[in-house]
Amino acid sequence: MKEDLIELLSRWKNDERRIGFRNVKVRNTPFADGEYLIIVLEELKVKDNSKTIKVERVFQTFNQSGNNEIANGDLYRAEQIVNIITIEFFKLYLDTIQELYLEYDGDFTELN
After folding, report:
1. Sequence-ordered list of residues with C-beta below 8 angstroms from that of 54, at least 6 positions apart, any chain
2. Mind listing the pLDDT tens digit for each residue in 39-81?
3. Which of 8, 78, 83, 111 is deepest in the core (most CB within 10 A)?
4. Closest CA to 67 of 36, 91, 35, 37
5. Distance between CA 101 and CA 107 in Å, rounded?
6. Distances from the Cα of 37 to the Cαs of 30, 40, 78, in angstroms?
């Protein structure tokens, strides 16, 4: 796999600002020599593991085997996919926190 794609996926996976556990799985695709199927996911267990938030997507590369037809196509799609996962995961996280803790019994202190 090309270094720029590996770097993008690794940077996303290891981002210090992430909320959940992130994982990237790669395998050769049976559809084209030198290309890959890539699964990208973010997951988090909330409130004593009673609820799991998970967003997962799979995509296939087309430009890793030397085809320069659209040289940055895989990189562009990978960037879009990790952005979508990040946004969808954050939305599910906010919805889950809202659902679990909206009726939380306890006092809140007002921030000045």
Report:
1. 41, 42, 43, 44
2. 999 999 987 777 899 999 999 998 888 766 666 889 999 999 9
3. 78
4. 35
5. 13
6. 9, 10, 11
Helix (H, G, I), strand (E, B) or coil at 8: helix
Which residues, at least 6 apart from 72, have a Cβ–Cβ distance to it below 8 Å? 63
List strands edge to edge, sheet with 51-60.
21-28, 36-46, 51-60
Which 3 state secondary structure label does DSSP give 41? strand
Cβ partners under 8 Å of residue 28, min gap 6: 35, 36, 37
Pair of tokens at residue 29: 């695709």
Tell me which DSSP letter residue 18 carries: -
Both tokens assigned to 15: 């981002």
Structure tokens at 109: 């202190």
